[in-house]
Amino acid sequence: YKYGIADGIKDGYLAPLVSKATSTGFDLGGVARRGGDYIPGALHAACDKDETTKAAVDEIVEMGANRKSWLAFCAGVEHAIHVRDEIRSRGITCETITGDTEPRDRARWLEQYKAGKIRCLTNNSVLTTGFNAPQTDLLAMLRPTLSAGLYVEMAGRGTRTSPGKDNCLV
Predict the structure, then answer these.
(1) How far, in Å, CA of 31 to CA of 25, rounded?
(2) Among 33, 44, 114, 156, which has the minimal tally of Cβ within 10 Å of its Cβ?
């Protein structure tokens, strides 16, 4: 038996994903690959650039103006922190979840995000699988990947349905 994501969207079990073209991109020309994806340290170095982060956050803020819950996938821990700080500089509530986040802080911030008290969470390889926050209506893909599986997992964070949510902007 086969039941795919498109079937789940058609049947109303999953929220549709929509995308808009962005003008900000990453120069990945010199980023080495291993095991079918980019080497994490090299990817982080290519993505964590002040000018690119500011431009990407400009686009997130503009495109997300009418969105309530943003989830940003970043290329490294420092990148996640820099994105968080840039989002905060725009007056938007934001926290960063990493593998080193204290369990008490993590639980509190996830609860606040789900309750709508924190608008954005940035993360590095933490909230890609097993994280369920149905109200998430914007995904910022600031962590390029060559892995279809990883991309589907990240995108899947936006497919949960929630009252008042028509779709999720990627």
Answers:
(1) 14
(2) 33
Query: CA 49 to CA 81: how far, in whole Å?
Result: 12
CA distance 132 to 159: 10
* E-only strand ranges, 9-150: 17-18, 33-34, 37-38, 70-74, 94-97, 120-123, 138-142
The CB density around residue 11, as the number of other CB atoms within 10 Å, is 9
Which tens digits make up the pLDDT trace of 66-90?
999 999 999 999 999 999 999 999 9
3-class secondary-structure state, position 6: helix
Partners of 121 in the β-ladder? 71, 95
With CA atoms as reference, report the closest residue to 121 among 93, 89, 101: 93
User: Is the sign of the CA dihedral 131, 55, 166, 6 positive or negative?
Assistant: negative
Q: What does pTM read for this prediction?
A: 0.95
